[in-house]
Q: What sequence folds into this?
């Protein structure tokens, strides 16, 4: 269980530390008689207004996972700033000098090859706006506060914030695979990162050759260190667990390689499958969430509000988003805002006038395959859960796409109503 | 004779790519050929057949001492769990029977392949210095954990030949049996 959520407190603490470090640097300079450093030109790489509130990422830490959550409640549009993109790490972040970086492609190939970052940049490039979502995003256990004194209440940032949407650019994996010449008997590849755990995942070559990237840019900038600088694998539409960061090698093989994260950690025991485990959960099913109004916010009084949120599907484009303002009894279509891209966040808006009574707000996504986002009850039924072992906040499961209800109380305060 | 030879020419051209001749590179000025040593220095990733396993050997008895020194601080005494995952369910000679719950995923008895145990320990453990154990040590700790889960005997020797042959008790309880993409037939998105 993740605990010690700090959010803003963590931000303030690190800001204070940074201030201390800067002060120490100045006094050392003065002692050595060096000239005062020129003030930093904040326009060469622009910074937010000093009036802008520090809506930073919240963080949870456990021994195996450090997770920073995107502040979705603040967002409008579909693009997450790189600085606010969610991140999850399983060990210390590697600090890679791009001049010393290389990606080796080997295994069942005609000729193994090694590419520097410059090499990757010389190859044909493509960019794609795509969502990236952790396989554990919005999982039942994220619908309970840690309960510790001072811990943050459940908000959309915590329930759904291990997900973001960026423009990713790089070289198509298909180009690299063609350069090395894949042997006839090959069918999968294994991607390995250079973090402390040598995080490793395998994907079928059919997907790799279709739309997978070796990405070195996000939102027009080099990857952030926490996103795998200088290069990562990016697997559109699939759980972010497939998109291996700090990519150091691609090994072409003839079967899935059953590495720990893939064959153990990310599997899900499923009652509907006779208590067998579902592994290789590739694609994110259709999903949506109202980002505003959402849990933790408070409506100042009756009147007009815009309900806004995000919808997405790993299978393709969003076809329709419906909103219910009466606990799911009736649904009306929301306005879908351009652009509507495949495997990308899609923004929806819905005009609403609150009458001051208690209401439950929720959204439902239908994708272009005709698949519909399920309610919690439907999810329990799909996964074969009976009344006595239905999914509850104690379940740490993956691949969770239930409809998210928010309850607005008469005083305007909003809470998570999924398990209420 | 003359006619039949002419007839054969197009057939040979058509057959050439199918025969597996290496296709040439499109961007031959980009990237370089790594040396054998450079590829070796990346280390190994062990698949379910275990064909990448290196020489070496170990038993549960040897692994127990190493586990106490290198692993127990996080995984608890004998892998019973601590700040890091519990690795044992069942006991020596008495493997876990019946189904597993989601909370039982980390004990080794749940894992489908013994090779996964070796591969993960080899590349990722101990967490503060992954990759620091020798092949003998990895075989020994793997043997110890399999023994504690009731899967091998204390004196069984694990090496590149014996490890991939271990039949893991939960091996046949994973779906889909053979992951393929795209799925055929397509399942509902919640599957």
A:
């Amino acid at each position: 269980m993740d605990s010690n959520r700090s959010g803003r407190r963590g931000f303030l603490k690190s800001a204070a530390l940074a201030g201390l470090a800067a002060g120490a640097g100045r006094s050392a300079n003065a002692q050595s008689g060096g000239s005062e450093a020129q003030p930093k030109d904040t326009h060469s790489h622009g910074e937010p207004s000093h009036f802008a509130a520090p809506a930073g990422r919240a963080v949870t830490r456990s021994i195996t996972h450090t997770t920073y959550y995107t502040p979705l409640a603040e967002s409008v549009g579909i693009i997450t700033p790189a600085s606010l993109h969610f991140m999850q790490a399983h060990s210390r972040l590697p600090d890679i000098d791009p001049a010393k970086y290389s990606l080796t492609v080997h295994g069942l190939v005609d000729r193994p090859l090694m590419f520097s970052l410059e090499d990757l940049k010389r190859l044909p490039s493509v960019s794609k706006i795509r969502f990236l979502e952790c396989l554990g995003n919005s999982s039942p256990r994220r619908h309970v506060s840690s309960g510790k004194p001072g811990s943050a209440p459940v908000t959309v940032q915590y329930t759904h914030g291990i997900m973001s949407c960026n423009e990713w650019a790089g070289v198509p994996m298909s180009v690299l695979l063609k350069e090395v010449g894949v042997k006839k008997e090959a069918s999968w590849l294994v991607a390995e990162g250079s973090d402390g755990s040598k995080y490793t995942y395998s994907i079928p070559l059919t997907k790799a050759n279709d739309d997978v990237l070796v990405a070195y840019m996000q939102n027009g900038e080099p990857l952030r260190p926490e996103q795998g600088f200088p290069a990562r694998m990016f697997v559109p539409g699939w759980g972010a667990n497939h998109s291996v960061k700090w990519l150091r090698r691609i090994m072409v093989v003839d079967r899935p390689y059953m590495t720990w994260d893939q064959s153990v950690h990310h599997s899900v025991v499923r009652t509907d499958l006779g208590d067998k485990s579902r592994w290789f959960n590739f694609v994110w099913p259709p999903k949506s969430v109202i980002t505003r109004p959402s849990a933790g916010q408070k409506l100042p009084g009756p009147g007009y509000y815009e309900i806004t949120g995000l919808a997405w599907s790993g299978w393709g484009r969003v076809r329709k988003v419906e909103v219910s303002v009466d606990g799911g009894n009736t649904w009306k279509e929301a306005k879908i805002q351009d652009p509507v891209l495949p495997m990308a966040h899609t923004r929806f808006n819905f005009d609403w006038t609150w009458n001051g009574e208690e209401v439950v707000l929720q959204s439902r996504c239908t994708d272009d395959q005709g698949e519909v986002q399920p309610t919690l009850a439907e999810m329990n039924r799909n996964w074969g859960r009976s009344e006595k072992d239905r999914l509850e906040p104690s379940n740490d499961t993956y691949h969770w796409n239930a409809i998210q209800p928010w309850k607005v109380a008469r005083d305007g305060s909003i809470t998570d109503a999924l398990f209420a | 004779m003359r006619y039949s030879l002419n007839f054969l020419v197009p057939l040979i051209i058509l057959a050439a790519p199918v025969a597996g001749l290496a296709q040439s590179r499109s961007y031959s000025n980009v990237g370089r050929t790594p040396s054998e040593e450079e590829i070796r220095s990346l280390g190994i990733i062990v698949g379910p057949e275990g064909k990448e396993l290196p020489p070496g050997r170990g038993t549960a008895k040897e692994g127990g001492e190493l586990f106490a020194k290198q692993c127990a601080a996080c995984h608890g005494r004998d892998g019973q769990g601590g700040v890091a995952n519990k690795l044992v369910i069942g006991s020596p000679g008495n493997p876990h029977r019946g189904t597993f719950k989601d909370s039982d995923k980390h004990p080794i008895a749940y894992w489908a392949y013994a090779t996964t145990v070796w591969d993960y320990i080899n590349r990722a453990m101990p967490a503060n210095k992954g990759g620091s154990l020798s092949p003998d040590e990895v075989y020994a700790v793997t043997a110890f954990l399999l023994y504690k889960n009731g899967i091998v005997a204390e004196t069984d020797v694990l090496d590149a030949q014996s490890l991939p042959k271990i039949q893991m008790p939960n091996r046949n309880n994973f779906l889909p049996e053979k992951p393929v993409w795209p799925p055929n037939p397509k399942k509902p998105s919640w599957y």
